[in-house]
Amino acid sequence: xxxxxxxxxxxxxxxxxxxxxxxxGPGIAPDPPGDADTxxxxxxYHAVWDSYSLPPRQGIPIRRAFIGxxxxxxxxxxIGPCGRLIDxxxxxxxxxxxxxxxxxxxxx
Length: 108
Fold this sequence. Notes:
Order of helices and strands: HHHH
Oligomer: single chain
Strand content: under 5%
Mean pLDDT: 76
Radius of gyration: 18 Å
Shape: elongated
Low-confidence stretches: none
Largest sheet: none
Number of strands: 0
């Protein structure tokens, strides 16, 4: 049986690993090397899947917090889809005689 603390610990660990790999740049070296995207995807799948073995009153808030934290982190970093969409619209609407430089990703 999965315990709440196990799921929270695995999702807290994944948040840090995903932040380092996706947002801050290459992070913790995967084993085997070069497969960070695959390993993080599989680890995330398993951790979220395990959260479904918890009672809904525990599992749902944990999943919402995990997904919300990651979505917010990506958006605040400047690499999220909304920021890129807005930069694309501004670029398309900027007169050709003026240069528009897309917003750089924000690093914290």
